[in-house]
Amino acid sequence: MIVQSIRSARDIGLRWLERKLGLVTWVAGRGSRNATALDKACRWLAAVLLMPPGEDFMRDPLIDEHPGFDPDELEAYSRGETA
Amino acid sequence: MPATVPFDAEKVGKSRRPVATKEGATAQRALCATCDIACSVGTETKKGRVVKVRASDNPLFRDNICMKGVYAPRGFANPNRLMHPMKRVGERGSGKFERVTWDEAMADIGARLKAIIAKYGPESWAVSTSQWNTGTDCGLSRRLMNHIGSPNWISGVALCAGNTAAVNRLTYGWFPMGDFNNTNCIVLIGHNPTRHSWSPIYSMIRTRQARGAKLIVLDPRKSENAARADIWLPLKAGSDTAMLFGWLKVIIDEKLYDAQFVRDWTVGWEDLKRRVDEFPLSRVAELTGCKEADIRAAARMYATQGPSLIPWTPITDQQRNSTSGIRLQTILRAICGNLDVVGGETLQGLNPDIIPETVIEAHEVLPEEQKLKQLGTEDHPVFTYRGQDALREPMKRVWGHEYVNQVVGCYMANPNSTFKAMAGKGPYPVKAFVFMGNNPLLSYANMPLILEGMMNQELIVAHEQFMTPSAQLADYVLPADSWLERPWMSDMFGWMSASRPSEKSMEPPGECESTFSFLKRLAGALDRPEVIPWESVEELYDWRLEKTGMSFEEFSKNYEVYFNKPRYKKYEQTGFATPSGKVELKSSILEDLGFDPLPYFREDPPAPEGFDLMLFTGVREDGFFQTGHRHIAEMRAKNPEPVCFLSKKTAKKQGLREGDWVEVESTTGTVSMKVSVRDGMPNGRVRILHGWWKPELGRGLEAGLSGTMTYSDAQLTGDDPDYFDQEQGIPHFKGVPCKLTKTVHLPVATDEPTAVRA
Predict the structure, then answer these.
(1) Where are the domains of chain B?
(2) pLDDT digits (tens, 9 = 90+) for B403-451
C-alpha cells in the first residue's frame, strides 16, 4: 500500500514535470520562430524567464557572430589558390 | 541557455524544417561528428558546398555547437584533403604514393588480404577504427570480420568510454546515461567539459548549477569546472580509485546509502564492506593528498543531495586501476539509489523500433573457437568476447539481444596485445591491418611497439580524409567522406535509446567515399558481397527503420530526435542483466575470470632514479579533437605548438620559464614540448597535451612522420605491467614518472602544402 502510494506520487510528479517541460519547450520553440504575434509573445516570455544574455554562459562571439563562409572562397581554398 | 529535455517524444522529437540564414542557401539537419558528442546542428549549403554550420533551431539543442563545428566547412575544404585513392610506391614509411583508381586499389587489396588469410588464418587480419569518427560503419566492419572469421577489431574506445561500458556491465548489466537535466548533484572525475569541448554537457552542467545543483570536481589541476565547483578535491593524478574508496567508507560508516536497495537488489555487500574498511580516511587522505574533512564533505554531498550523477569520465578509463575505479563508480551509483531514477543514471536499453548496430554486427556468426583467439583474451579479458560471455543470457533476458555491443566497446581485442601480434610477439601473427577514421600510431600507448608492428605488416590499408602519420605507413590510402557529406543515424551506439538523423549536406569531393561504401567494396573484393547486401547506406537505414513505418528520408524530414517515453526502475520487472540478476558489488564475472571480484587499489611503484616528476596525459585543447584538426589554420592560431603545463614552483625548480622548450622523457620515450606555467597546476606534475603532430612537416619515417616522432605523447606511455590495468589491459596515463630537460626547438623541414595533392 505504502509502495503503491509512493509510486503514485512519483508518477504524479513525473507527469507534472513533463507538462512543465513541455510548456517550456513549446514557448521556446514558438519564440524561436518570431513570425506571428503569438511567436513574439513567446519570445518576450522566454526572454523574461530565461537567463539574461550578459549572464548566459553559452554566448560566445566566435559562435554567435560567425558569418559562415563564401562558397567561391572555399572552392578556391580547396584548390590551394588561397591561404 | 538551453531548454530542458522533456519526456514527451511527440512534442519535441518532431520539429519543423530548419531555415537557412544565408541568402540563397538550403538548410539541413545534421549531427556534428567533429568530436564524439554528436551535437545536433544546422548546416547551410550553397553552390554545392556547406557554407555554414550553426546550432540547431530546435530549442532542445540550443547552443549545442563549438568552434570546431563552426570551422568544419573550411577544415574539410583544406587543399591537402585526400581526393583520390593512393598506392605506396616506395618502401613502407617512405611517404611516397601514386594515384590509382578505386577499382585497381580494391582488386589488389582483396587479392592480398585473401592470400594473407589463406596463409595465416582469418585472425591475422586486424582492424582499428571508431564508429564515432566514421559514422557509416554502422557495425559493418564487425559484420564483415565476423563472417570472415577475425575477432581482432580494436578501437580507441578501449581507452575511452568503450571500456567503461564493458566494466559497468559487470556490475549492473548496462552502461547508464546520466539524466543531467534533472539531477541535483554532479561529480566530475577529472573530466572538464567547456564551452568548446563537449558543449552540450557543459551547458547542462551549468544550467543545473544555475538551478541549484551541486558540483563536485576531482582533479589534480584547478580546471574551469573545478573553479566553479562546490567542492574541489585536488587529488594526486591516478589516485581516483583511492578517493572513491574513501567516499564509500564515509557513506557506509554513516549509513548514507539506500539500505532497502542494498538489501533487495545487491549481492556482495558484506564482502564490499570488509574491503572498504581497508581504507580509513587517514589512509585515503595520504594516498590522494586531500584533506579528510574535504573527502568526507564530498561523500556526504554525493550521498545526500541526490539524485546524483557520476557522468562518464575518461580519467578512470586510462589508468592502472581502471577496472576498480570504474567499478567503484558503479557501486556508488547503485548503493546511493541513483540507478534508473529521474535525475540519476538511466538504463535506457535499445529502442525497440529501430534495428541496432549490434544486430548488424552479427557476433553470433563468429565461431566460438575464433572468439577465443581474440587477442588479449587470456591475460586481459574484460572487454573481449570471453570477458563478456557470462552476460549473453542476462542481456537476452533483460535487453532482448544476446550480444549488445554498447559504445562499440564490449567485444574488442586488446590493442596492445594486437600490436604485439603485429610485431611478431603474440600467440600468432597479425599480418594485415586496416584502419578507418583512426590514427592508430598516435592513439594508443607504446608508440614504438605500434610502429614496429606496422612496419612488420604485409598489408596496411587506411581509409582517411588526410595523410595522417599512420596513413603514411600504409600500402593504400583511400579517400574518405566527412560528416557533411553523408547521411547518418545515431543512437550513440547503444548508450541511448534515442535516435537522431543526420542529413547529407553536400556531395563528397573528388573520389571520397563513405565507410559504408569502402566496406561494401571490401566485402566484394573478398568474394563475400552477400555479407553487405544493401546497395546504399540509405537502403540500410530504411531496413533499420522498417518497424517505424518510415523510410530514412521520412525519418530525417520529420524527426530531430526519435525516442519513446522513458521508464524508470525497469529492473523491478526484469532484474538486472547480470548473472545473479542483481547489482553485483562483488563481481561473479571477474571472479570466474580469475581476478579479484572486489575493487582494489594498486599504489604507485617506486619511480626510476632521476625521474622525479609525474606526467599525466590524455587531455586535449578545445580546438582539436584527439589527433585531428591540426591542419585548420584558425585552430592552430589558438594552439600553434604542443604544450606541457607546469606550476610556478615546479617551473622555477626546473629552471624553466613560460615559452621555453623542453624534452619530456619517460622510460618509454622522449618528446619536445613548449612550457606553459599555470597557476592551477599541482606541484611536481607535468600535464601533457594529447595527439600532437604537424601536418605541415615532412612526411615519411625518415622525416619523422610529420612531427609525430618529435611531439606525440603516445611515445611517453608504455605497457609495463606496473603501469597497466590487468583486467582490461589498459595503459596508465595518469601519473607516469618523467623528467624534463631544457632544449632548443629546431625547426623541422616542411612539405609544400599543395605539393602533396594528387
Answers:
(1) 9-76, 100-163+350-558, 177-346, 613-743
(2) 999 999 999 999 999 999 999 999 999 999 999 999 999 999 999 999 9
Structural domain total, chain A: 1
> How many beta-carbon contacts under 8 Å exist across A and B?
110
- Cβ-nearest to B59 among A25, A62, A75: A25
Are the beta carbons of B145 and B151 closer than 8 angstroms?
yes
Type of residue numbered B569:
K
- When CB atoms are compared, the residue of B6, B7, B210 closest to A51 is B210
Alpha-carbon separation of residue B381 from A76, B154, B725 (angstroms) = 51, 13, 11
- Is the peptide bond prior to B307 cis by the omega test (within 30 degrees of 0)? yes
Query: Does residue A32 sit at the B interface (CB-CB below 8 Å)?
Result: yes
Give the distance, in angstroms, between the CA of residue B336 and the centroid of all CA atoms in the same chain: 27
Residue B50: closest CA among A78, A31, A60, A82: A78
For residues B342-357, average pLDDT: 95
Span B262-266, average pLDDT? 98
What's the CATH fold of domain B100-163+350-558? Rossmann fold (3.40.50)
Compute the C-alpha angle B605/B609/B610, nearest 5°.
Answer: 120
Beta-bridge mates of residue A37: none
Could you tell me if A11 lies within 8 Å of chain B, comparing CB atoms? no
Task: Look at domain B9-76 and name its CATH class.
Answer: mainly beta
Q: Which residues contact B259 (CB under 8 A, 6 or more apart)?
A: none
Cα separation values, B328 from B170, B220, B260, Å: 12, 19, 20
**Nearest-Cα residue of chain A relative to residue B506:** A71
Any idea which architecture B177-346 has in CATH?
A: 3-Layer(aba) Sandwich (3.40)
Task: Compute the average pLDDT of residues B573-589.
Answer: 98
**pLDDT on residue B756:** 32
A17: number of Cβ within 10 Å: 17
Report if residue A9 sits inside a domain.
yes
- Cα separation of B445 and B442, whole Å? 8
Question: Can you say how many angstroms the Cα of residue A65 is from the centroid of all Cα atoms in its chain?
Answer: 17
Across the interface, whether the CB atoms of A32 and B342 are under 8 A apart is answered: no
Active site residues of B: 36
Cross-chain Cβ contact B47/A72 below 8 Å: yes
Q: Does domain B613-743 have CATH number 2.40.40.20?
A: yes
SS3 call for B103:
helix
A15 located within any domain: yes
Domain that holds residue A11: 2-78
- Give domain status of residue A83, yes or no: no
Using a CB-CB distance cutoff of 8 angstroms, which residues of chain B are in contact with residue A25? 3-4, 6, 11-12, 59-60
Mark yes or no for CB contact B51/A69 under 8 Å.
Answer: yes
